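Run log // design_07
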């Protein structure tokens, strides 16, 4: 499954940290709000189900999140 947006995108140096608790992408480049838990929770839930999430993005070109769901 893939979810895409047309937002500000995520620079490569921040793409892995956005899945960590209380970590966010460079907030100076975006007007995003939050405390940095949403994607960490999503990743944890997917891992508990032997599944995964990846991000594909370029700054200024939006982002795509790909979920690989396990069929067990």
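design_07 sequence
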């Amino acid at each position: 499954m893939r979810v895409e947006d047309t937002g500000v995108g995520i620079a490569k140096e921040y793409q892995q940290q956005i899945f960590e608790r209380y970590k966010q992408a460079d907030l100076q480049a975006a007007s995003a709000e939050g405390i940095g838990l949403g994607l960490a929770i999503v990743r944890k839930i997917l891992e508990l189900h032997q599944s995964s999430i990846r991000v594909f993005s370029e700054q200024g070109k939006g982002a795509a999140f790909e979920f690989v769901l396990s069929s067990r």
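The longest helix spans residues 38-48.
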